[in-house]
Amino acid sequence: MRPLTPFIYLIFSFAGPAAALADDIRDIKPPVYFPTNYLPIIIILGALILAGLIFLIRYLVKRYIKDRPSIFSERPKSAHEIAYEALAELKRKELPAHGLMKPYYIALSNIIRHYIENRFTIKAPEMTTEEFLNSPKVSDTLSGTHKNLLKEFLSLCDIVKFAKYGPGPDETEESFISAKRFVDETKLTRQPKGEATKR
Q: Has this prediction a pTM greater than 0.70?
């Protein structure tokens, strides 16, 4: 075998390192993308949307209730219910037991006068007893028994208020019973639907 000529040797001496260098030079690798976790973002957005919906629903419900009274709202009290509550409250105060006869009879008279105004739409609180009893509306609305009961009751109240009359315990109790009896016998009672239909 013939030895390599100097020229060929020179070629191989340069070709060897160049080939090794060519093996080391490679293309740049593309960037590595790691998978993104969207779960926290989805949870936060979902919570914000839910909070917004809850706020919107509550706002609309409050506005609807404000504009349209609920069917479950408390119905207005009737005239006799108001009178019964006022009579019970007056009874609890025990004014006669403390010698406060005049304030007791003023309060008792006002309860009945306001009851009459609410029940019969008669301006009883603004009238004197005489004006009230002689008014045509009273004559047309109340029966003779109720007019007499009311006359005796209001006359006694006026005597205590203006003539400084001091009724005894029995008379005081009788006045309260008369006031309650007047409400009992003149209150507006609701008829059953079937009975009202028959008429």
A: no
